[in-house]
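Render this sequence as a predicted structure.
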Amino acid sequence: MLGVKPEAKEPLELLGEIPKSFMEMNPEIALIGLVSLGILFLLPLLRHRYLKMIPAPMLVLLVAVGLGFEFDLLHEHKYVFLGHEYWVGENYLVSLPNNILDGITFPVFSHLFTFEALQFILMFSLVGSIESLLTVKAIDGLDPYQRKSDMNKDLVAVGLGNIAAGLVGGLPMISEVVRSSANVNNGAKTRFANFFHGGFLLVFVAFFPGLIHQIPLAALAAMLVYTGYRLASPKEFKNTYQIGLEQLAIFMTTLLVTLATDLLLGVMAGILFKMVIHLLRGANPAHLFRATARVSQEGNTVRIEIENYALFTNFLGYKKLLSKIKPDAEVILNFKQCKIIDHTFLEHLHHFEQAHHLNGGTLDIEGIEKHKPFSNHPLAARRISARPSESVPPLVLTARQKDLQVLAAKLHCERCTFTQTYDSLRIAQFTFFGGKQIKTIENRLTKQIEGATLEFMDVVVSEGARNAAKSHKTSILFISHLHEHFPDFRLENQGFLDNFFLGQDINFTQFPTFSKRYLLRGHQEAAILQFFDEKLIRFFEQNPGFQVETKGDKILIHRDLGLTPVDKIAAEFRFAEEMFGVFHQNCEKTKPSTQTKCLENENRK
């Protein structure tokens, strides 16, 4: 990125060379790299709707190629900066063969059974498999249609692809998380999005190598530096520590061993260290890999009593057990006889709960209240009859949470809770969360009004997946437990280009101010037109800035992305109460048509 090629090969040695790279950096190349890195850091911070549509790496390439032309990197030459001479040229650009056939290299099979070859075969197989499976798991979590990939099919496809690539001298490949998450965020629905992306890459490499040759290596290096920072940013260490001190220790062990050796040994060290922690906490080695449970069924209710331990080492056994349960069954998991439950097991159980709920089933957990968690995190590892020294640390309130406590008393809220929870299923169905993964919910204020429950909450969402993921907090106001069904619609602030990018908008010719200010969408257009009478339209005109989405008997209210300041939350509650009153009146007035259409929509679902 700085125009200096390091001499070292191992990670720790490479890190040690960073000061030397800064001392010997090539100013023009370093400028390209640092400008590229600045764009990658700054562009995601801009919350404007249209700026978010611009992929930061694409903007980096456009700027970097322009700077490459400015510095004439296509021709080798010397320049002077602050009295020092520097050389630049084509060696600072991406290099590709002019003919794709020139890059073909056939394998030498005589080396196939050497120690070095077998080492790399094993490493590529395991690393490629782990990376691909993690990618599939991450993208399945982002899929708005909640589909589940066939992981066996994915591994077979990657394996066959790697065999074909190896036979012509190609590098091993894996499932790609950055491209997949970008596709999901931009509305892709099938695998053809990735297929065509690969096709376009092939076309450019085969027919336009000269165009790719104009990309400075410093720009690509900046993308890798940015990705590395995202993977090991201070926030990741903090998030891991919040789950539990032992999780941070496992994280650090894996990280340091990986840097000192390689990824496989790092992962193995992390696994072994976690097993040692379980043994120190009293786990019996004979039961580490055994999933022991008693299963009973009565009608559509399946009761599973988990015994001994619920750990990452024996989760596969429980997963097989859970996979045999009917999708719409009522599942009861009892942990009364379970001595230790670890974080990984609880996280997998959380994902199972979400998938099972979407298939029409339910999951209830019993007997876990007697287990002592090792931190305040909802998915923290826990042990029954924990020693007093392992008591849960008290919850320390932030300044925002202290202000929310005061506000809750003023608003006469029934509940005010600050612990993180994972019960996101009620709100995940809203379009507002499309392409985003709800991580946790915290800071809830709950207030009952006649005919509804109002809940203010701060939601941590993640856009993208794994190394492409960007997490941020946003505040919403959720209205539930309604007695009426309203037509499904989404009302949001309208920008100049919205009609070009986002499709049809339901407009009212007699209310031009409302139609210019708001973007109104929904499939039940006739019911929406009838529901939005003059009183409701005037109400929204007099209360600008709020965005509303309805889903049958649930309503979501939010402002722009980001946390709502505490001094504005009371106004949101007032808006919600007044809006619900107008909704109730309109529902009574248009009950025959609206109610019928809503019920028909529910039946279709």
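Summary. The chain has five domains: 1-95+213-231, 100-199, 234-280, 285-390, 399-604. Residues 336 and 367 are 4 Å apart (CA to CA).
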